[in-house]
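Chapter review: from sequence to fold.
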Amino acid sequence: MAQLFSLGIIRAMKKHETPILTRVLYTFAALTIIGAVVGGVMICSDSVSEGIAVIVGGLFAGVIYIGIGQAVDYLARTAHATDQLSTILETSITQRLESIEGRLSPSTSLLVRVDSTPPPPNARTEFYYSTDGTKQGPASANDMRLLWGNGVVRDDTPVIRDGESQWRTYGELLALKKRGHDA
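The token string follows.
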């Protein structure tokens, strides 16, 4: 299992590539700084203060280009790392589920319940339910608990009690039972 997980991480680990925009911004920064220094030196022969102002302005603009380039690269690295993490988690979870499924016998079912609503308590009543548009049953309250626990019957599954004419969802029936109403 650890080897499979390691292989998944190795496969998912790709090198981050610096975005083209970052390279362009770094190039602009270099050209701006070089141009400002050359231009400032040439202007310094006429006016020292103007030459220094051109050099300082060019350096400032170059630093801004570098900062923007770093921000773009940071965003690209973050997106890359998020993608890497998603791939690693997906690989890990898939391998873990396959491992669990491999250890289960074909007759074992995984029960995954998100809500904790109890099934109807009355074991004498018979119910009919519809999962594919056809009436199925009869099923006792205990049978309904099992069907609900196995995910065959869900809270939105249409259910009708024997002798009634109105279909309700299983969730509505549970809510009525919980409030003590005889639905």
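Two observations follow directly from the output. The helical segments are 2-12, 20-44, 48-103, 141-149, 170-178. DSSP finds five helices and four strands in the chain.
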